[in-house]
Amino acid sequence: MNRRSPVVAGQQKQATSFGTIAQFDVIEAGTVLAAPQMTTAERDALSASNGWIIYNTTTNKLQCYENGAWANVI
User: What is the rounded distance in angstroms from the CA atom of residue 49 to the CA atom of residue 69?
Assistant: First the structure.
């Protein structure tokens, strides 16, 4: 595992990349984690695996890939 220096409150730092699709952004230590953002068309072009999480900017929904399909988290 690649270790990174800790994030200090108020600094923006990118977290470890998961594969080649996107990175999660840590906005403030311990408070905010921003999922990769993409449209429905961009999402559908992925070869997704169970557990992937994105923020769909077409539907304004947080989504997770599970059992072969994308599902709204909330």
Answer: 9
In this predicted model, what pLDDT tens digit does every residue of 15-67 receive, in sequence order?
444 444 456 666 666 677 778 999 999 999 999 999 999 999 999 999 999 99
CA dist., res. 39 & res. 30, Å (int): 27
Closest by CA to 54, choosing from 71, 67, 68, is 71
The answer as to whether 23 is a domain residue is yes
pTM of the model: 0.62
The count of domains in the chain is 1
Which residue segment(s) compose the domain that 46 sits in? 13-72
Spatial separation of the C-alpha atoms in residues 70 and 74, rounded to whole Å: 12
Q: Is 8 a domain residue?
A: no
Dist. CA 11–CA 21, nearest whole Å:
23
Residue 62's DSSP bridge partners are: 55
